[in-house]
Structure formats: C-alpha cells, structure tokens
Amino acid sequence: MTSPENASTEDAMPTRPGDAGTGALFDAIAVEHATIYGYGVVSAHSIPEMNYLVSDAIAEHRARREAAIALIEAQGAEAAMPAAGYTMPMEIDSPTDAENLAVRMEEDAATAWRAVVEQTADQEVRAFAVTALTECAVTAARWRAARGDATVTVAFPGGSE
User: Fold this and answer.
1) What are the tens digits of pLDDT across the range 58-71?
2) Distance of CA 36 to CAs 42, 58, 79, 97, 105, Å?
3) Residue 158: CB partners within 8 Å, gap ≥ 6?
C-alpha cells in the first residue's frame, strides 16, 4: 500500500462522480480550467485593443470556476484538477486565430454548462449553470462582434440545434 506522501499524482487525481448531474458539473469545471488556460494563448496572440475582452473573459471564467468548485465540494465530491497543459483545437498564429479560439472556447463552455442544466437535479446547481451558460453565450457574442461576424448570437447556446 502506498502512503499519502509517496502516492503518485495519478493516484491523487479526483475521479469523475458517477451521478449524472455531479459528473456534468465535474466536466464543466474541467472545461473552465481548459478555457482559462486557452485565454492565455488568446492573450498572447490578440491585438492590444482586445485586451479588455481577454481580461473580462479570464476574470469571468476564473470566478465561475471557483464558484463551481465550491458547489461540487458542497455536494461532497471533488472537483476536476487542471491539467499541466492543453492542446488547442486549432493552430493559433494570428489575432484572427485568437478570436476564433475565443469563440470556440466559449461555445465549448456553453455546451458543458448546458449539460449541467440538463442533467442536475439540484436547483441551486441548475440556476448556477443557467447563469454560466448565459454568460458564455454573451461572451461568445462579444467575440463574434469583435471579429466582425454579421450574426453574433445563436438561438440555443451550447446545443447543436
């Protein structure tokens, strides 16, 4: 048997809860970790005029992550841990690529929070997830407007409809 001080990092990693609602919350926290990391990449490639949007988005995701961690811990579960690094879903070599990544991350986060809305039975968690989903949709719209999209909103954020 391994003692705690000799346990590997893999042994210490929390596992995804089996309950659908808590599992979805665990997944949404993991997406928040990845999004915060990704905004570091967005920041590195954005033009200075976009710094306000980058900093607003990072602050929003950090606050949401911390509140979500408190929610999952209140349910007696452990939160997903951040990875040491993440692979971006696309090449990021320009300010346009950075804007595209920001929109993609907001869409991915909206999808994760929609899953929480759909799967949790806890009303406090559902209300939190609805707010998170809405905030992701608004931030995605802000990024779409910044990149000059003709349509900046989607009918059902976080879904494929």
Assistant:
1) 999 999 999 999 99
2) 10, 6, 16, 17, 9
3) 107, 110, 111, 112, 113, 114, 115, 133, 136, 137
- Whole-model pTM: value is 0.90
Distance CA 57, CA 51 (A): 10
d(CA 117, CA 127): 8
> Where do the domains of the chain lie?
17-82+92-146
Q: Fold for 17-82+92-146, please state it.
A: Ferritin (1.20.1260)
Q: Alpha-carbon distance 115 to 58, whole Å? A: 22
Residue 70's SS3 state is: helix
